[in-house]
Structures are given as C-alpha cells and as structure tokens.
Amino acid sequence: MTAAAATPPDPLPGARLLFSLDPAVSHLNHGSYGAAPVGVQRAQQRLRDEAEANPMRYHTRGLDERVAHTRRHVARFLGADPEGTALVPNTTTGIAVVLNSLRLDAGGEVLLTDHGYGAVLLAAEREATRTGASLRTLRIALEATDDEIVAAIRDGLGADTRLLIVDHLTSPTARLMPVAAICAAARERGVPVLVDAAHAPGMLPVDVSTIGADFWVGNLHKWAYAPRPAAVLSVAPRWRDRIEPLAVSWWQPGGFPGSVEFQGTTDVSGWLAAPVGLFTLQTLGLDRVRQHNGALVAYGQRVIGAALGLAPDSLPEPGADVVSMRIVPMPPGIATTIEEAVTLRRLISDRLAAEVAVNVWRDQGYLRICAQVYNRAEEYDRLAERLPGLLADLI
Q1: Which residues pair with 27 in a beta bridge?
Q2: Exposed/middle/buried for residue 124 (C-beta within 10 Å: 0-12, 13-18, 19+)
Q3: Which pLDDT tens digits describe the chain residue by residue (395 residues)?
Q4: Distances (CA, A) of 149 to 34, 138, 176, 377
Q5: Where in the chain are the domains?
Q6: How far apart, in whole angstroms, are the C-alpha atoms of residue 346 and residue 118?
Q7: Do domains 15-28+285-394 and 39-279 have the same CATH topology?
Q8: DSSP for 78-118?
Q9: In the beta sheet, which residues pair with residue 395?
C-alpha cells in the first residue's frame, strides 16, 4: 500500500449530476447510508406506483419470479450461488437470520474481533443471553498485517468456538480483512465463519464463491447504488436447510431463500430496483469508479490529517487502494466516548456543512471519511481548513 495520495484524481464527467444530494452540503459519508442515483429512485417509484395501482395483481402475479430474477442478477454480480442467496433488507437483518438459525447452546462460543460493527456485537450478545452461549472478542492491532491478522484469529479459535464473525471491510476502522485466508484457517478447525460484508458490494471486487465463508452478508444500498434497504445473504450449501426466517410466512414450506425473502407485505421495490443501480455503476465503469473513489478518499485523508498535524505515513492504511473509506485519528481527548462522537459528528454537520462519521475505537476518536463519484477534492480541502478551529473549541 502507498501513503495517502498527494493529488486528487480527475472527476468523472457528469457523475455528480446522477445524484439528488443537497449541493450545499459536503456528503463525505457515503458508507453509512449510501445514496441512490436519480434513475434508481425513479425505477423504485415506478414499482411503488405499480403496486398501488393494483395491489392484488402486484403481490400475487409473478412477484416471486421478479424477486428471483433480481436475486440471480445480483448473485452473478457478486460471484455467489443464486440458489444459496437471499435478498434481505440489510446486513444487520441477515446476521440476525444467521444467529437465529444456528441454535447455539450454553457450551458454545461466538468469537468476534474488536473491529466489528456495534450492532453486530449487540445481536451476538442478545443471542448469547437467549441461548447461554458465551462471547469472546479478539484484539487485532490497527496496523497488523494480513498474516498477523490470520495468525491471531487462528490462535484465537478455541475448542468451544461455534461461530467466528469477521468483517470484510471494518466499519469503525476502515480496514480490509483477508477474509478468504481467515475462512481457510477457520475451516481447518471446523469453525463456521460469518462474514459481515456490509461495505463490500460495489466497492470491492468480490467473488463470494471463492471466499469460502459459511455465511456472507452484504449491503447493496451503500456502494452498489441500490435503494435503501437492500442486501444479500449468501449461505454455503451445508447450512441452507437450517436457515430459519425471523418471521414465518406462507413461503416457509419452500425453505431458503424464499422463506427469508417473503415476509408478509415487505416492500420489495428496493430489491427490484437494485439491478438499475448495478447498471449505473457498470455504465460508469466499475474499475474507473473504484480507482477514482480510492484515490479521492486517500487525498481527503492526507489533507485532513495534515491540517491536524499528522504526517502522511502515520495515517492508517485501509489495505487496498480501491477502499473508499479511510480514518483520521482525532486529537487526544476528542470523541473518546460514543456520546462525544455523536456530538462531534453533529457539530461538523451543523457548523461545517459536512456529513462524516465519527467513531470510537479503543477509547480513541476517529473521523471516518468516504469518497464517491459525486465528491470533489475541494470538499475535503474545505473540511481540512475549518475542522481544526472547531476541534480547538472542544479542548
């Protein structure tokens, strides 16, 4: 990996016009909720109009095949098996489905890393409370190499470990994890792996079938330009018969994936519009978008870091040039609790007209920025110029 970029990439012509975002705000946090292009929004609205024009016809004549068609389309894009892939609202829901289906017991353990997403930890804690299983969290250094990460996880697997949960790309620390090697190490010990790939679809080149995860869950509404909420849950063959939905519907007898996808009157318009998002992404050029976003966020990390007195070689590297999220450490004493992080994020939004993420990891505050095709270098320059003054007021 190279240090943060010294110069920004050229903007993609016309890409900014694809989105309906407020131009008075610097939207530097695509990773939290994404942003659907205008064409995708319109495609979803046409589906909703169709449903409201004749709800009975919409829901009872061919909706299952339309969902299946979308599932196959998305699965091919991700290199996943369409027969083992279900559309779900979001990654958090997919993870809840997996935890609900494993039937953990008091003798089992769920192993996580300390780079995981907070809601996933809460879901695992709830399942542990319900079943009597235990939780254990491995500490992985922010600057650890891929080999060190794999070794730490391999050494951390215990005789009672019934599930390992790892991130494809971590949310609080923006670190790409060597998930294929992790899955291989866990497989040697007979431990199933659940990969939280919330940020992978669209951002990263992904071939789910070669990763070797037992369960892989990724959002489509972040980097794949789908409407919110839209995600996929991919399950290895040996687990498919054990997958149970969170609510039982008429599709229960047919099993996975239909039993998970059809939950009463769930609005599936976001799923059905997802291929339009993929088409938009592919029209712009997958590699072109990824290289642009990776280079732009590296530039943003460098200029913001420099404004805070941080040398380029001290800034945390994400693990690949196409990663579109990076973090910048906050000064000591700034945003060291979740409450302080929320306050700082809102201050940046209200006073600096910039949307960012502020996370706490090991009692250290981190500003997380993203880059998407609608962003420009001057947005990061402007934040870098104004952020030190705002932080000085907090010290």
Answers
A1: 355
A2: buried
A3: 455 677 999 999 999 999 999 999 999 999 999 999 999 999 999 999 999 999 999 999 999 999 999 999 999 999 999 999 999 999 999 999 999 999 898 989 999 999 999 999 999 999 999 999 999 999 999 999 999 999 999 999 999 999 999 999 999 999 999 999 999 999 999 999 999 999 999 999 999 999 999 999 999 999 999 999 999 999 999 999 999 999 999 889 999 999 999 987 889 999 999 999 999 999 999 999 999 999 999 999 999 999 999 999 999 999 999 999 999 999 999 999 999 999 999 999 999 999 999 999 999 999 999 999 999 999 999 999 999 999 998 87
A4: 29, 10, 11, 33
A5: 15-28+285-394, 39-279
A6: 19
A7: no
A8: HT--GGGEEEES-HHHHHHHHHHHH---TT-EEEEETTS-H
A9: none
Read off the tokens for 320. Answer: 């690949």
Q: Which residues contact 225 (CB under 8 A, 6 or more apart)?
A: 34, 36, 37, 40, 202, 276, 277, 278, 280, 281
- Tell me the H-state helices in the chain: 30-33, 38-53, 55-60, 63-78, 91-102, 118-131, 146-156, 179-188, 208-211, 258-261, 269-284, 286-307, 338-352, 377-394
And the tokens for 189? Answer: 């010990």
DSSP state of 204: S
Whole-number Å distance between alpha carbons of 291 and 9: 9
From the list 166, 179, 312, 284, the residue with the least C-alpha distance to 225 is 284
Residues in the chain: 395
Q: Find out if CATH 3.30.2290.10 is the number for domain 39-279.
A: no
What does DSSP assign to residue 317? Answer: P
* C-alpha span between 132 and 160 (Å, rounded): 13
Question: Could you tell me if 91 and 141 are in contact, meaning their C-beta atoms sit under 8 angstroms apart?
Answer: no
Query: What is the rounded CA–CA span in Å between residue 130 and residue 254?
Result: 27
CATH of 15-28+285-394, one of 3.40.50.2300, 3.90.1150.10, 3.40.920.10, 1.10.630.10: 3.90.1150.10
